[in-house]
Specification:
Layout lengths: L5 H17 L3 H12 L4 E2 H8 L3 H13 L4 E4 L6 E4 L4 H29 L5 H28 L3 H39 L1
Antiparallel strand pairs: 1-3, 2-3
Helix pairs in contact: 1-2, 2-4, 3-4, 5-6
């Protein structure tokens, strides 16, 4: 990597590795990470130079990122080159990722499940399988509906909601401790009455 600080290099390399686990290739992950930590929009030649990638790999990576709506195309005055930058708001990035994953992964599954539930089940095994598919369909539909509601929330409200999740977990943990102590004292009381 050329003309990048060790901190930026570490982030870019890590993001490339994580990208491959998220279903995008390493090159695309590294391009995105470079754009994310850059303090200004970059053109394809600059990206290729910094990451030491071929220009064609950068072009393909940028097209992939545009299809995910994770980068936007900009033009600079008196410059014919195209520049790219990610959305500024991290919540917009998060929402774009979730929307695209839903479009690419969840919606095809829902479509297949709908079709499967419309088929005539002629055996007990098929009826059982169809019922299980219906349960899955209903869960995915419920989570999709919840996701639609969450998408409409402001970033501040969404952050508060997420923080509330950790508070609820703490309350549940306290409840588990209390229940454990109650069970323990109840067991001791039963032993004393014997």
């Amino acid at each position: 990597m050329v003309n990048l600080s060790p901190l930026a290099q570490k982030f870019i390399l890590h993001f490339g590795e994580m990208g491959s686990r998220w279903g995008i290739n390493r090159t695309v992950g590294q391009i995105y990470a470079l754009l994310y930590v850059s303090n200004r929009p970059l053109n394809a030649d600059e990206i290729a130079e910094h990451l030491e990638f071929s220009r064609s790999n950068v072009s393909m990576g940028l097209k992939e990122l545009q299809s995910w709506r994770l980068v936007k195309l900009l033009h600079q005055p008196n410059d014919r080159r195209e520049y790219f930058e990610p959305p500024k708001d991290v919540w917009d990035i998060f929402k774009a990722l979730l929307e695209e994953r839903r479009r690419r992964e969840v919606e095809p599954t829902l479509s297949m499940l709908r079709d499967a539930m419309l088929e005539s089940a002629s055996t007990a095994e098929d009826r059982y399988a169809q019922e299980r598919m219906r349960e899955m369909y209903e869960l995915i539909e419920l989570s999709s509906s919840w996701f639609d509601d969450v998408q409409r929330l402001s970033p501040d409200t969404l952050a508060s909601l997420m923080k509330m999740g950790s508070t609820v977990k703490k309350l549940l943990d306290v409840g588990d401790v209390v229940r454990g102590k109650f069970r323990s004292s109840r067991s001791e009381a039963e032993e004393d009455t014997k």
